[in-house]
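Fig. S4 source data, part A: sequence.
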Amino acid sequence: MSSSEHQRGFPPRASSPAAARRWVVGALGLRGAAAEDVAIIVSELVTNAYLHAGLATDESIVVRAGWLPDRETVRVRVCDPGGRFAQPSATPHRKHGGRGLGIVSALSETWGVDLDGQTTTWFVYRPEESS
């Protein structure tokens, strides 16, 4: 963890996406459209970890957020010990849900998933006006 990166763990429960988005926006000092975009992305990624990682109640979803060295770009990582990630289908097969990563893709500069014994889903976002 770099000195400009903040980290916090969240329990695997339904209230964690809202808590994580508030924490990230506050930790990074975001406002306006940047705060809204980052909040949506964080909510999607933490919700996915909560719903799909199969975490035990004593495990945590760890969120790391910080500004990159250029101080104009944000990077956020959502880590869970679930260790698995299913690629979303091109056509959602459910009436509700299955569109979250499309939203992440649309709002972020780039995003990805690292699997190394845990699942880390990350994104990079560049606000139009840096904070």
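Fig. S4 source data, part B ends here. The helical segments are 16-28, 32-52, 100-107.
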